Amino acid sequence: MSSFWPRHTAKILSSDAPSLHHNLIFALKSCETTSKIRQIHGHMVKTGLDNVPFTLSKLLAASIIDMDYAASIFSYIQTPNLFMFNAMLRGYSLSNFPNKALPFFNELRNRAIWLDQFSFITVLKACGRVSEVGVGQGIHGVAVKSGNRVFVDVKNALLHFYCVCKRIEDARKLFDEFPEGNDLVSWNTLMGGCVSVSQPCLVFGLFRKMCWVGLEASVATVLSLLSAAGYIGNFGVGKSLHGYCIKIGFSSNLNDITALIDLYAKVGHISLARQVFDGVAKKDVVL
């Protein structure tokens, strides 16, 4: 096993307990394959660290790169804590089996463990990926009852869920409930949702209101605006947005440049699209 450890943690086997914990956690963070995690897991079993909740939680969090392996670890934990449940929820929400996050969330609730923001954010991501509208609405209700809905990260996760499920009216209702609690991510999420359901006029309306409340546009904002302008085929708006990109310094962002080229192409100005293309020093395959 010594060949696995980085040189500056090679003394891990002879370290005292605090240093041992620190080195294990450092090593786990650097793991990119299941085989390396298995080596650390084996060492933890030999030294009894697999019975320490803190180090076991860190092992589980690192293991979500292989959810089958993470699930095998979790199945042997008699009293999993919130961090462990959240690690599994995150793993499944990012995996090829996001639907498996839903029974984990139910089990977490059944154990009467107090949920935190991360619990809701991860399970809502999973719901959005599998378009579980009814389940997501139920989780929305739980977030309200538990008081977690007041957190902007949870609100934004709900907005994203409704937008990816094409429930723009529900997203707009949530957005308007407490407008003072909306941040730039909230505005960008709703604008992106409006683009996805082909409602470009709503995008421009939201942008005007966003500017009125004093928020500055981000790359995601401009991307939604360019996509909306391309959808309605408005060359004048497209030219204005091009100038706006230059003014605020986003004229070198590949995502925005790609959307701008797409916009010019849709309104029939291929020569302008080519000028923008030729002005990019480093091009990717999408561009």
TrEMBL record:
One of its GO terms (biological process) is RNA modification. The keyword Repeat applies. GO terms for molecular function: RNA binding. InterPro entries: PPR_At4g14850-like_plant, PPR_rpt, TPR-like_helical_dom_sf. It comes from the Eukaryota. Keywords: Repeat. It holds the Pfam family PPR. The keyword Repressor does not apply. PANTHER family: PENTATRICOPEPTIDE REPEAT-CONTAINING PROTEIN (PTHR47926). This is Pentatricopeptide repeat-containing protein, mitochondrial.
